[in-house]
Amino acid sequence: MTDEQSASLQVWRYLAMEKMPYMAGLLFSLRVLDAPGLGTLAVDAGLRLYIDFDAIADRSDDERAQMLLHEVGHLFADHHLLAEELGVDQRTKGRAINVSADASLNDDLRDAGCEIFADDGGFILPSVLGEPDYKTPHHYYRSLTDDDEGQDGGDGGDGGEYTGCGSGSGSEPAPCELGDDDAGGTAPAASRVQVEVAGAIIEHAKNRGRVPAGLAERTEQILAPSTTPWQKILASMVRRGAASRAGTLDVDTSRRSRRRHDARLGGTGRRLVVPGMHTPVPRVALVRDTSGSMSAGDLNAVTNEVEAISQRVGIRGMDLRVIDVDADVAAERGYRRASDLAVRHGGGGTDMRVGIDAALQVRPRPSVVVVATDGYTPWPEEPVGVALVCVIVGTDDQRPRAISTAPSWAKVVEVATS
Length: 418
Ligand SMILES: [Zn+2]
Description:
By secondary structure, the chain is an alpha/beta fold. It is built from 13 helices and 11 strands. The strands form 3 sheets. It has a 6-stranded mixed sheet with strand order 8-7-6-9-10-11, with helices on both faces. The longest helix has 22 residues, at 90-111. It binds zinc ion (ZN). Zinc ion binds at residues 70, 74, 102, 165, 169.
């Protein structure tokens, strides 16, 4: 950026903060790059904002402030995950994803006092799509793609001008994006800044009141209160499990060792295939107690822990199975997002041993079984052959008794609920 561009940006950022002061953390964390020829603004998940300063020269400062808010809106909502969540190829549906993400955040911007200019190059509101406000991008995407199948060329993939908001909006990356080149890592991890913004939103709500509905919801998702160091716990459990199995169950026969075995040394005359070593990525089967004694608060706490495992360890889908169990297995699925756990299957009596048995049947075999329960359950007498973590949820009064009955050979994690 030139000094002049940098000075302009300060003005836009100031105006943006007047409208949405809680976005300050993201606005100040952006690593802004001049992107001549881009034709617009774009963000990526690394908090980089690409601005074609010439292309937006005709806009007023206030409009450009709103454009900044729009771009950080994509970042706060983690729209870069959309293509994966929607299960579509962003090269063919990138435009539809981008429009859906835009519609889902522009109604909040309007509620926060943005004027939402809708002229050429302006903001798309859900009404433009013939849809109501306050729906998810997933909703708008389905509505868009149900109407027209396969008519979307994506952004930039067809050689035309890039019209998206960058990979941070869920669409195909803008041509100017740096990708893995972090140029010294000057952009902090998005998650940390999102947490700061979420905290600022809470403060704003306390002091002055109004926060757009979509942002309030997102804030609750981000401020999941799990403080469990899952990365550390699971890594140590996986190591322990691997050591106790002495390489018998933990080898990967699909990989060959780089070490060449000379048949002459072995003297067998056969070609030996030695299983390769591999870095253990934990596969977690999580048994969720859905019996009647689990309160809504307990279940929320469990959801936050599952989400924390997913984020901190970087696993989801079939690597993080969630099995709902009361006294029987009621449901099983690969975890993708917190809303997957909104419905409680089960609700009867409690026997987590049934869930542990079910977890041990999962293939490929999990490296760790996590049981999340209020603890009013019988436990297996003997170690089950896989590392077991007992997550005991409950109030300060309830947990000690539950913990006293947990198996001595299992790792116990306490999660306080009110
Ligand atoms: Zn956008």
